[in-house]
Amino acid sequence: MLIDTGSPVTILSENLIKKVDLGSSGLSRVESTLSAADGNKMKIKGQAVCEIKIGNNEFQHKIIFTKLGKLEGILGMDFLKCYECEIKLAEAKFLIAKQVINFKQHFSTTCARIKLGENRVVSPRSETFLKGYVDGEFSGDFGMIEPNKILFQKRGLLVAKSLNNTKEKEIIISVINLNDNPVKLKKNLMIGTLEHVDLVSQEQETNRDKTQGKFT
Fold first, then answer.
1. Confidence check: pLDDT of 210 > 50
2. What is the number of domains present in the chain?
């Protein structure tokens, strides 16, 4: 199980439905929607009150079932608040019901997301420079934007990979609209993730034109 303080709900992989006791009522419908880290909506199978065993303790809690890739489950903030869990990062320990659980750390090169800082409209067949911001913790001074593939696959937007100073308040993002129609983008849309870079060599800075450029 992954402990994710960024997830408002507790989730289990749909692959575990047959292994979990769903009770007499089985799965019930979920009215709300969930979005994955890439901003794409998740297909929810349903929800049920199930038993979760952590260490020597068992807990009854409402769980949502959906696709989670290689993960079996996510303990969200709803569970952590309900059972007054305590996370001690310095000691890599998880406290619940007077029981101490040692963490197994999961390492990832992706530490933060790049989100859109304003509502914008990208004109057809043109390049637009958007203002974004870093959402989440990032330890390095520089990071490479890894574009959200959904923007290209479903909306026809090409986001440029770029190296950015993560200490700046704003991140400038180059986006090209390959469509014949304008595309509306809402504030806080996930543009991509921020990846660590090993080495950045400084060169003389040049001014970059931040106006829209038309393509023919």
1. no
2. 2
Binned at pLDDT 50, 70 and 90, residue 68 comes out as confident
**Nearest C-alpha neighbor of 145 from the set 103, 70, 208, 135:** 135
- In sequence order, the β-bridge partners of residue 47 are 28, 64
65 in Cβ contact with 17 (< 8 Å): yes
Same domain, yes or no, for 160 and 79?
A: no
- Cα angle 155, 177, 43; round to 5: 15
Among 86, 102, 118, the domain boundary falls at: 102
Summarize pLDDT for 85-133 with one digit per residue, the tens. Answer: 998 877 888 899 888 988 765 545 445 889 999 999 999 999 999 999 9
Domain co-membership, 7 together with 41: yes
| Residue 189 near residue 103, CB atoms below 8 Å | no
CATH number at residue 157: 2.70.40.10
Q: Cβ distance 126 to 179 under 8 Å?
A: no
User: What is the CATH classification number for the domain harbouring 8?
Assistant: 2.40.70.10
pTM given for the model = 0.51
Token digits for 126? 């043109």
Dump pLDDT digits (tens) for 132-158: 998 877 766 778 888 998 999 999 999
Domain that holds residue 79: 2-102
**Dihedrals φ, ψ of 197, to 5°?**
-120, 145
Of 48, 81, 102, the one marking the end of a domain is 102
